[in-house]
Amino acid sequence: MSKFIIKGGSKLSGEISVKGTKNFALKIVPASLLSSEVMEISNLPEIEDTSRSIELLNELGSSVQIKNSKYYINNKDIKSTVISRDIGKKFRASIMFVAPLLARFGEVKFPHPGGCVIGAGSRPIDLFLDGYRSLGAEVHYNDGFYEIKAKKLKGCEFFFTTVSVTATESMLMAATLASGKTVLKNCAMEPEIEELAKYLNKCGAKIQGAGTPIIKIEGVNKISGGKIKILPDRIETGTFAIMAAASHSELLIKDCRPQNIQILLEIFKKIGIKYEADENNLLIKKTDSFLSYSIKTHEYPGFPTDLQSPYTLLMTQATGSALIHETIYDRRLLFSDLLAQMGANIIMCDPHRIVVFGPTKLQGKQLTSPDLRAGITMMLAGLIADGETTIDNIYQIDRGYEKIDERLRSIGANIIRTEE
Ligand code: EPU
Predict the structure, then answer these.
(1) Distance in Å, CA 165 to ligand 1 centroid
(2) Which of 214, 261, 267, 334 gives the lowest tally of CB atoms within 10 Å of its CB?
(3) 305 in ligand 1 pocket by Cβ < 6 Å?
(4) Would you say the CB of residue 307 lies under 6 angstroms from ligand 1?
(5) What is the pTM of this model?
(6) 113: cis peptide before it, omega within 30°?
(7) Please, which pLDDT band fits residue 419 given cuts at 50, 70 and 90?
């Protein structure tokens, strides 16, 4: 099993580029199934989760070719609309293949998606199923598989009772090939949703309002292929910004869109972390000390749950106390016990709220990465801790951060990847 061994205390400096965003890549790859024509993708991050998506496409009969780092996906000869148990259980985003398969082929069969354990139970998919039913599909559950059928989906009005990113994107894709008009209400507003709609519209879809709570879609019979460059990962951007601040380093974060992490930068201003930003670059300046500030995770443009764990680490280095209120996922604060084992002063009030007192010196530890975002946080903690930190189960980190050890080494981090 691979692990990271990190020696803390190295100063970070120089520049680091942000890779394409995982949470857009995981939607655009399945969106290719909406068309029989070729999709060309550039800036696809080389992470485990995108490899799983390509594997799944291959299983369905897709032809995927890579030339000069660009992916060419041809879904003319899809042979199957069944997502196997094996791959469906491996990653939560297998759920993103359901809507395009259903919309284009009228049927799909899939197991309950797997993935990291951060939410209630096995992370529900009720919103997706309710949405497909509203579009006129029949939903059955047999022998561990959902089976959904509809000769032709029919436009509908659908209200999301919980704001969900992937459910919004799924309904947007399904309604693109439905007959008539669909109105989606209480939609998630993440930039990746707007980007997906922009791409589909370029290919002939008729989607209005993506990026706002109400999305209107006029169904079309088919869409064409197209070209898409994956936008930079806003969570990676925020994570690097926090890493620079927590380690009191100056770091230039390149190829990013600072405007997509506005809430983090507004907090930086309040607590005294200095930075300069333009459209594509973010320079975090060396800051010796900064203040604590409480946050509550929220749907975009609020504080992203995916930055909650690195932000918690940042607060261990801030002066004062901060309440961290995780409102999206039930189990996303459990990792804070690992920070406490490293010496952080954290009190858990209940499963959704912790208080972090800082600043505290952290000590290197032997840890296991519980999930993707907690895993990267353990790496950042290792970088600023005294002594050596070992992190097991780094598949969880490789799922979402491309060659992270190599990239952090290039800015001065002391990290070794070992295969034991
Ligand atoms: N929910 C339901 N029913 C559903 C779907 C979701 O109750 O059918 C609930 C969830 O249990 C959760 C809330 O809705 O409490 C929000 O979950 P959401 O569906 O928005 O999450 P998601 O779409 O599965 C995406 C990202 C997550 C990110 C969240 C919130 C992808 C592939 N994943 O998940 O990313 O945390 O939105 O922003 O886009 C990550 O990258 O580490 C990650 C977990």
Answers:
(1) 6
(2) 214
(3) yes
(4) no
(5) 0.96
(6) no
(7) confident
